Amino acid sequence: MRLVRNRLVHEYFERPEAMLPALLSARHFVDTLCAAHAAMRAYAQSRFGG
Asked: What domain range includes position 22?
């Protein structure tokens, strides 16, 4: 996941189509990231109220 993030954040693509492989790789992490967000949000709400 970190490698894909670094490619998207730190590389400057001269051609938009060159970014496509990184975006296609990143989409595989969407479910994992959404689950992590939900878990952190639930923890914060239970710990600090909300």
From this structure: 2-48
